[in-house]
Amino acid sequence: MTTSDEVDFERVTVSDLSRFYGRRRALSHVTLECRAGEIIGLLGPNGAGKSTLLSVLATLAEPSTGEVRYGRWTARDGGANLRARIGFLSHDLQLYPELSACENLEFFAGLYGLDRPEARAHAALMTAGLEDRADDVVEGFSRGMRQRLALERTLLHTPRLVLFDEPFTGLDEASCGALVDRLRALRADGHIVVIATHDLDMVDGVLDREVLLRSGRLRSLDYEGTLRDRYRLGVATPPGAVKRSREAHDPVDGVEAEPLV
Amino acid sequence: MHRRLFPALAGLSLCFFVVAPVLIVRAPYESTMGLVQKIFYFHFPAWMAMFLAIFILGISSGIYLFRRKPAADRLAVASAELAVVFGLMGLITGPLWGIKAWGVWWQWDARLTMAVILELILVAYLLLRQYGGAGSDRLAAGLGLFAMANVPFLYISTEIWRTVHPRTSVVPTLPVDFGIPLWWSLVGFIVLCFALLSVRSRLEEQRGALDQLYLAVEEE
Amino acid sequence: MRRFLQVAWLVVRKDLRVESRSKEMLFTTLFFAISSVLVFSFGFVRAGQAVEGAAAGILWIAIAFSGTLALSRAFERERYHDALQGLLLAPVDRPAIYLGKLIGLLLLLAVVEAVVVALVTFLFGAPLFRHGWWLVLLLSLGTVGFASVGTLFSAMLVRTRSRAVLLPVLLYPVTIPVLIAGVSGTAALVQPEPDLAMTRLWASLLVFFDTVFLTLALWTFEPVMTE
C-alpha cells in the first residue's frame, strides 16, 4: 500500500495511560488530548517521562494500562497504516552517517512507500536548503544541517501527528528560528504537533498549550506569566496541591479543529 | 486457585515419594549392574519432569509473547527454573550411575549430551531474565519458544551423531518398560513438578502484586 | 508479498551501501575469522600434522565465532543513531526488516566463509573442495540456520545492557544442532572415503532446522521488538 488514506485522524486521545516496569514507573495516569492544528509543549525535568510518552505516542511502546486513540483507532488496530501517519524526530536523528543526504531521504521515501522517491528527496532537500550538499555524506554535516535533514525525513510522508524530542538541542540562532517557522507552518496545515523541549524561551509564544511531566505525572500549567515563570511554578508546586492535574484538558477556548475534507 | 492447589499436590507427591523407596527396594535386581541400576528409578523420571517443564515453558512463552497474559509469563519463569532443577538432578544422577556401573563419569551418550545442551539453554534463559534489564520478559519469552522448538532437533542431531561415532564403553539402552516402581516414581515426579510450578508461579504473582502496591503507594 | 520483498530489498541495499563506504565490518570479521583459524591450528596440529578430522570442526567454529561478531556489529550500528527505531516506525511489515538484515548478513558471511574454507584447506590439507557443491550446500544451509536465529537474538538484545555477553550465551546453545550437523556433514565429506549418504542426511536435517527456525523468527520478530 503506497497511500494510507484508510487511516487518518483529527485528534489523539491519551486516556489514563500508565507505563511501568516492576516498581519503576515511567508514566502515571496520563490523560491528554491533542487536536489538529495545535502545537503542544511537553515540558519537564530530565527523566520525567517525556521520551517515554513520545515513544508511546509513536506506537513504539505499548501502554501498561490505559490507551491511546488516534481518531477511532488504537495502535494495534491501525498497524502499519497508522504508522504512515506518524512522524517522529527523536533526539538521535535516525540518519545513516555513511550515506549521503540524498541517499538517506531516498531510502526512507522508499521505505514509506512513496512514489517517485528521487523526486521527493530532491524536493525535500530544496526545502531544507541542502540541495548543494545532496551528495555529501551526512557524517560531514553540522548538527544544524543534520537536524534540517532529519526534519525533512520526518515530514517526507506528510504525517498527521508529528512528534519532536528536544529538537532545539545544539542548534544555532538561525536554525532555531527556521525550525520555529516550520512548526508554525505545520500548525497552519492542520497537523498535530507535540514537542518535548527544555528550550522554553524558544517555544514561548509558539505553543498553543503546554503540559508538565514530573515523575511520570502530567499536569497543565495554568498560571500567569511567561512560559518560564509558569514552568518554574509548576515544578515548584507539589503534585497534590493542584486539583486540576488529573482531569482531561479542555480544548483551548474558541479554537475548534475544522473537519478535514 | 493456587492456594489450595499447592498443598493438595504437595501432599500427593509426598505420598508417592514415601511409598517409592519401598517399591524400589522390592524391585528385582538387574542382572549386570545390581543395586546401582536402581538409581534409574529417579534418574529417568527427573528427565521426564524436565521435558514436561520445557514443554510448559515453550507454550507459556508463546502465550505471553502473543497474548501478553501476565500469568503466562509467571508460569514461564517457574517452569524454566524447575527445568533447570530437574535437569540438574538428571545430570548428577547420570554420572553417579555411570561411574559405578561402567567406570566412567561421562560418556558422550546422545541423551546426556542433549540434556547438557538443554540445561545450557535454560540457564541462558535465567541469565537473560536476571541481567536483561527492562523488557527482558518479552525477550525471554522469545527464547523460551526457541528452546522448546529446539528439543526435537537436539534429540535427532545428538542421536545421529552418537550412532556415527564409535562408543568407548558399552552403554546398554534400558527398556523403558521396567515395571511398577518406574511408573510410580514417574507419576510422583510429575506431581511434584506441578506442585512446585504452582507454588513458584504463586510467588511470582505475589511479587507482581507487591510491585503494584508499591506503585499505588507512590501515587500519593 | 511484493511489498514485503521490496522492503527487505531496500534494507539490504541500504546495508550494502553503508558497508561499502567503510568496509569496517567486512575487514574486522574477516580478520577475526583468519585469526581464529590460526589460533585453533596451534591446538590441533601435532608434530606438523593436523589431527585427523580437526578441519571440519575448526571450519565451523571459526564461522560461528565470526558470525557472532558480525551479528553484534550489525546491530550495534543500527543502535548507534537509533536507526532501528527509524525502521520500526516505518509503515512496513516488521518481519521484512528482519529479512533484509538477515540477507545482508548472509552476504557478508558468504565472503568470510569463502576465505575461511580456502585457509583451512591450505593449512590443514583437508580436501574440502573434493565435493565442492556438497560443501557449498552444507555451508549455505548451516549459515542460514545460524544467522536466522542470530539475527533475531541480536535484534532482541539491541537495547539490553549486557548484550555483548548475552548474545553468545543465548545463541550458541540454541544453534548447536546446526553446528553438529555442519561439522558432521563436512567431516563425512573430507574423510578418506567420503560418506555422501551421511552428508545428505545432515543436509536434510539442516533444511528442517532452517525452515522451522526461520519461520519462527519471522513470526516472533514483531512481538519481540515492541516494547
C-alpha geometry of chain A: globular
SSE succession of chain A:
EEEHEEHEHHHEHEHEEH
Instruction: Give, in order, the helices and strands of chain B.
Output: HHHHHH
Principal-axes shape call of chain B: globular
Note the main sheet of chain B: none
Low-confidence residue ranges of chain A:
242-261
Give me the oligomer status: heterotrimer
Using the CA coordinates, give the radius of gyration of chain A. 18 Å
Per DSSP E runs of 2 or more residues, the count of β-strands of chain B stands at 0
Which spans of chain B have pLDDT < 50 for at least 5 consecutive residues?
A: 168-172
DSSP strand content of chain B: under 5%
Q: What report would you give on this structure?
A:
The complex is a heterotrimer of chains A (261), B (220) and C (227). Chain A is an alpha/beta fold. Chain A has helices at 50-57, 75-83, 101-111, 117-128, 143-155, 173-188, 200-203, 227-236; strands spanning 11-21, 24-35, 38-43, 65-70, 73-74, 86-89, 161-165, 192-196, 209-214, 217-220. Chain A contains 8 helices and 10 strands. In chain A, helix 3 (101-111) packs across helix 4 (117-128) and helix 4 packs across helix 5 (143-155). Chain A is globular and about 50 Å long. By secondary structure, chain B is mainly α. Chain B has one domain (2-23, 39-168, 177-218): Four Helix Bundle (Hemerythrin (Met), subunit A) (Up-down Bundle), CATH 1.20.120. Helix content of chain B is 80%, strand content 0%. In chain B, helix 1 runs antiparallel to helix 6, helix 2 packs across helix 5 (136-164) and helix 4 packs antiparallel against helix 5 (136-164). In chain C, helix 8 runs antiparallel to helix 9 (196-225). Chain C has 227 residues and is mostly helical. A two-stranded antiparallel sheet of chain C has the order 1-2. The mean pLDDT of chain C is 90. The interface between A and C is medium-sized, with 34 and 23 residues.
